[in-house]
């Protein structure tokens, strides 16, 4: 039997280093911006760089400018003469013909992780790949490009033809994978392929890395192979990392976009695969192709690539370090004799707990042989392991100074690489992968949180958590997790035990709100034949009651807090969880205080910083003991409060009582009491004084969201750090609510402040609710502010009006003016103008914000305004506002689409006719081209007016795509050479008009044209590639019978 030889060894050259070069093959070019840490080096230097510091032992590196080799290395292939027929010395040979052919085999890859999975998060990236089998359309690229996550990808050829790619193989450990495309889809170019030649990799070999470097369509970077035995680069804990292999190194300086590029020699052969680079140097790292070539043979035959593992990481250490671990001299002599080119041996670096080698191998074991054969390097060892899956192997090891044989079972590496995930509550979970387990030195077991979503986030079970149990049911694997979740009714609150991989020693127990109404519960399994992940919908949740009636009492307080004791039965705590970021929201969890204002009907009031929008789950806590769901009655469109209802049967005999409203309005200087709840949930009681009553000022937010305006706030002397509270008189009657206002700073940072909201602004609407009367909100579509008399005089205010103001008895000598028009389409906008000074409303003088309360119930208001120095009388129609505002949301291709809401309209001069994109989800088709904050006004040239017309146009286009027949057009590559030679086109033929739309010559590649308009009026036309498999169309609509008041259904 031939002795195993290290394929990357340096051998002494022959006396006449002349070799015949095989015919050059194709090269490939690619593009990759998958991750900054992989290829984040600056543009390549073409000069050879000195290799970086060797991490351990002596490397087989070529020192620049020195000849201090202990053995003369073999001269690289490009130092030899080419084939005798060329009669051209090597140094005169040109790379041009090699690159010209190779470039036709290189593709740019555009891809998206459609779900977070394993080490990857959802989102788009670019990379490079190259064709290694032109007949079957097989493309080689990196494993971190093919990814273990579900992806959607396209390849862009050098002639800018685009074709869909499907992932067919991703190696569980090494950084390579294969994708495939339908070669019949290529119309205008003959395909080339690049031959894999791992044995051509030699120290000193001149190379070219051809790919999509730094986002460029084509970049050719030069370098010289300097090392063949570099340790695999490490990209960080919790990231994908290669191991148990050597890497090649050169100073080509590849950067983002070049992942998956071929490393070519001058004959056009791929000698390695570009994988990563150093962030602070020009060093680039290349994966050897030995195992890649083996895997390709299996892929070409349609078979699974056998991969074995011991769940053990090995490292190659030089002899001087191996000696320190106990290697005996006579063993070293035998190894050196059998493998004179080797400079070290394999050593166990780490063993995962509960793996096949646990308690069999230990770190520091020196590997001498496997199954009776010496294994001096990675390739020889893993050649045996990969061919021994589900079998036992015998390893000969040296532990200390003792040489012994141990038997280890070889595990199927694919069995610990997850191919199934569960989508629930907007999150993704799956079995813990070998990659992550190794990264954190954990056993390969447990349910891993790839993304928390709405449900798991309610328990703060964030990404990289391991779920131990749900509702006290152990979840050792994904199947157990699915079974546990199927026992839980929608809306229930259950305990969940989990730990973070970063702190695996510390378990956490939190309460999780089960979500089966906002998001789907389904299982996805990878299908390597189609490249897709097949979904299976889970059965609906059990119909059990999620909440049972309970009773609670309030704890006694200190006698000094008697007033607070009297009011505590009116206090509740409110938690609000958003399933989707709509209506300008940037956060998903809110909390604050609420106050019972009625028990028949049951009503609670809170501020709009606690419940900012109508879409979400509301949980109300009574007496710090009982938690039940709530439903929104309405969100007030002007004032900072929300009315919420609840089921009184669920709180049993809990002694709650509504607050009493004081009929006395507060004035500056009034003394009162503050009763509230601190941020640590402690009770606060304090005497205070009204320091001022002034306008509440808030800024326009980005993204636009609701903000308070045209209202006065009550300020008190003391700065009280509280979640909320009540301003009450000595009898405990409420005069104002202490509420939180949300706004943004000049730099766009979210901020909030506390202020008092007079109960007079709440009482009238609350009385209608108590009497079950219909509630309509009418108001002015303008933002008002106050102006001093001096400024008004400058603008033309007459002395007569000044006297009226002075004689009115008002405590403020100010006037209101129009600061901003909130909706240019409203009837109010056609009457009032920015800058108008309002002198009177319905004959009454207006000097402060509270004056406009009187007109909110009317259909029209007669105003006298001062405009451009002239007094004019106008009749202003009032606008009607919604108590929910957003009543429907559509999810299409990962975009959340809704009718434009009020906060958006105030930031637009000419409101487009269409639907508004509120948010796009990472990794979705919409996230590539649609920006949140734009209007969709046309789809495929058809106008869009509202949500219904948008759905109609979209569904019609999807149906047309499904009905498309095979095109009659025959592309050039399908024609005979004679046909191609006889076809010529004149300018007249090329420019001939063609207004026929209903034909079979479809060349859109599955894209749909979208015309958008931004808030500043910028018009763009973009193309969205439809993906009906991962991104179906759904909608949220109001449903009073559901637990949250909404229902999610197919659209």
Give the helix tally.
Answer: 18
Given the helix and strand composition, which structural class is it? mainly beta
Low-confidence stretches: 1-86
The number of distinct β-strands equals 58
Describe the global form. Answer: globular
Instruction: Report the radius of gyration as a whole number of Å.
Output: 36 Å
Could you describe the largest sheet, including whether it forms a barrel? 9 strands, antiparallel
Proportion of residues in β-strands: 25-35%
Terminal-residue CA separation: 67 Å
**Level of helix content?**
10-25%
Mean pLDDT: 86
Organism: Phycomyces blakesleeanus
Pfam families: PDZ_1 (PF12812), Trypsin_2 (PF13365)
Region (Disordered): 1-38
Protein name: Trypsin-like cysteine/serine peptidase domain-containing protein
Word description of this protein:
- With about 1050 residues, the chain is mainly β.
- It has 18 helices and 58 strands.
- Strands 21, 22, 23, 24, 25, 26, 27, 28 and 29 form a nine-stranded antiparallel sheet that branches. Strands 50, 51, 52, 53, 54, 55, 56, 57 and 58 form a nine-stranded antiparallel sheet that branches.
- The longest helix has 17 residues.
- The N terminus is likely disordered.
- Belongs to the peptidase S1C family.
- It comes from Phycomyces blakesleeanus.
- InterPro entries: PDZ (IPR001478), PDZ-like_dom (IPR025926), PDZ_sf (IPR036034), Peptidase_S1_PA (IPR009003), Peptidase_S1C (IPR001940).
């Amino acid at each position: 039997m031939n002795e195993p030889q290290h394929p990357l060894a340096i051998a002494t050259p022959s006396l006449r280093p002349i070799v015949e070069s095989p015919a050059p093959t194709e090269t490939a070019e690619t593009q990759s911006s998958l991750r900054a840490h992989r290829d984040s080096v600056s543009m390549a230097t073409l000069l050879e760089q000195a290799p970086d510091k060797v991490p351990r032992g002596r490397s087989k590196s070529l020192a620049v400018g020195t000849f201090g080799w202990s053995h003369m290395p073999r001269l690289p292939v490009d130092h030899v003469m080419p084939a005798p027929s060329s009669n051209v010395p090597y140094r005169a040979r040109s790379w041009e013909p090699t690159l010209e052919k190779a470039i036709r085999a290189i593709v740019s890859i555009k891809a998206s992780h459609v779900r977070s999975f394993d080490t990857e998060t959802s989102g788009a990236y670019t990379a490079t790949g190259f064709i290694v089998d032109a007949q079957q359309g097989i493309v080689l690229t990196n494993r971190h490009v093919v990814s273990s996550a579900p992806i959607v990808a396209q390849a862009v050829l050098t002639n800018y033809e685009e074709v869909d790619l499907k992932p067919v193989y991703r190696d569980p450990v090494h950084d390579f994978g294969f994708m495939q495309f339908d070669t019949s889809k290529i119309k205008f170019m003959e395909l080339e392929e690049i031959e894999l030649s791992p044995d051509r990799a030699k120290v000193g070999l001149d190379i070219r890395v051809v790919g999509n470097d730094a986002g460029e369509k084509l970049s050719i970077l030069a370098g010289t192979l300097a090392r063949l035995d570099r340790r695999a680069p490490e990209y960080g804990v919790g990231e994908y990392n290669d191991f148990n292999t050597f890497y090649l190194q050169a100073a080509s300086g590849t950067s983002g976009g070049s992942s998956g590029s071929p490393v070519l020699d001058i004959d056009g052969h791929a000698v390695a695969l570009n994988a990563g680079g150093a962030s602070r140097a020009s060093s680039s790292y290349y994966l050897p192709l030995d195992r890649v070539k083996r895997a390709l043979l299996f892929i070409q035959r349609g078979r699974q690539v056998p991969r074995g593992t011991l769940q053990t990481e090995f490292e190659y250490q030089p002899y001087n370090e191996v000696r320190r671990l106990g290697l005996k001299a006579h063993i070293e002599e035998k190894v050196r004799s059998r493998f004179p080119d080797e400079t070290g041996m394999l050593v166990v670096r780490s063993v995962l707990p509960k793996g096949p080698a646990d308690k069999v191998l230990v770190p520091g074991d020196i590997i001498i042989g496997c199954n009776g054969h010496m294994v001096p390097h990675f390739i020889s060892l893993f050649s045996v392991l990969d061919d021994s899956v589900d079998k036992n192997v015998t390893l000969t090891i040296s532990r200390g100074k003792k040489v012994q044989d141990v038997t280890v079972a070889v595990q199927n590496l694919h069995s610990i690489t997850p191919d199934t995930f569960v989508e629930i509550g907007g999150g993704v979970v799956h079995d813990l992968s070998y990659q992550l387990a190794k990264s954190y030195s954990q056993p390969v077991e447990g349910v891993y949180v790839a993304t928390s979503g709405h449900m798991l986030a309610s328990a703060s079970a964030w990404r990289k958590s391991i779920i131990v149990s749900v509702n006290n049911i152990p979840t050792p694997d994904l199947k157990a997790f699915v079974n546990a979740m199927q026992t839980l009714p929608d809306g229930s609150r259950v305990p969940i035990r989990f730990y973070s991989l970063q702190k695996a020693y510390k378990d956490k127990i939190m309460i999780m709100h089960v979500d089966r109404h906002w998001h789907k519960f389904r299982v996805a399994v990878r299908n390597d034949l189609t490249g897709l992940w097949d979904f299976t919908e889970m059965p609906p949740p059990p119909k059990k009651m999620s909440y049972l009636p309970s009773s609670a009492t309030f704890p006694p307080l200190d006698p000094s807090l008697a007033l607070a004791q009297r009011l505590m039965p009116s206090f509740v705590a409110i938690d609000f969880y958003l399933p989707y970021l709509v209506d300008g929201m940037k956060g998903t969890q809110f909390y604050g205080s609420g106050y019972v204002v009625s028990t028949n009907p049951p009503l609670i009031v809170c501020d709009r910083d606690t419940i900012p929008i109508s879409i979400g789950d509301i949980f109300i806590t009574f007496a710090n003991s009982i938690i039940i769901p709530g439903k929104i009655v309405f969100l007030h469109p002007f004032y900072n409060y929300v009315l919420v209802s609840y089921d009184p049967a669920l709180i049993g005999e809990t002694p709650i009582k509504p607050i009493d409203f004081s009929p006395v309005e507060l004035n500056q200087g009034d003394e009162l009491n503050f009763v509230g709840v601190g941020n640590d949930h402690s009770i606060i009681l304090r005497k205070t004084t009204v320091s001022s009553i002034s306008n509440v000022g808030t800024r326009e937010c980005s993204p636009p969201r609701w903000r308070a305006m045209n209202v006065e706030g009550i300020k008190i002397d003391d700065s009280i750090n509280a979640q909320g509270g009540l301003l009450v008189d000595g009898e405990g009657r409420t005069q104002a609510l202490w509420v939180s206002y949300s706004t943004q700073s000049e730099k766009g940072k979210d901020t909030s402040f506390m202020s008092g909201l007079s109960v007079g602004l709440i009482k009238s609407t609350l009385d209608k609710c108590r009497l079950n009367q219909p509630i309509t909100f009418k108001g002015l579509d303008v933002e008002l502010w106050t102006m001093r008399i001096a400024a008004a005089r400058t603008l033309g205010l007459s002395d007569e009006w000044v006297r009226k103001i002075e004689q009115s008895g008002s405590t403020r000598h100010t006037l209101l003016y129009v600061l901003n028009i909130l909706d240019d389409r409203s009837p109010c906008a056609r009457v009032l103008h920015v800058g108008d000074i309002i002198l009177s409303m319905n004959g009454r003088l207006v000097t402060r914000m509270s004056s406009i309360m009187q007109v909110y119930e009317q259909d029209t208001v007669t105003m006298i305004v001062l405009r451009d120095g002239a007094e004019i009388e106008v009749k202003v129609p009032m606008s009607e506002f919604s108590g929910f505002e957003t009543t429907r949301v559509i999810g299409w291709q990962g975009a959340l689409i809704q009718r434009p809401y009020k906060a958006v309209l105030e930031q637009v001069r000419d409101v487009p006719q269409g639907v508004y994109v509120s948010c796009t989800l990472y990794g979705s088709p919409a996230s590539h081209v649609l920006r949140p904050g734009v209007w969709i006004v046309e789809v495929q040239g058809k106008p869009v007016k509202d949500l219904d017309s948008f759905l109609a146009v979209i569904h019609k286009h999807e149906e047309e795509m499904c009905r498309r027949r095979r095109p009659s057009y025959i592309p050039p590559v399908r024609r005979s050479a004679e046909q191609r030679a006889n076809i010529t086109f004149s300018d007249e033929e090329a420019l001939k008009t063609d207004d026929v739309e209903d034909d079979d010559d479809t060349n859109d590649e599955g894209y749909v044209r979208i015309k958008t308009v931004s808030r500043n009026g910028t018009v763009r036309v973009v193309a969205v590639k439809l993906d009906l498999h991962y991104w179906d169309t759904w909608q949220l609509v109001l449903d009073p019978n559901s637990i949250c008041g909404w229902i999610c259904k197919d659209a």
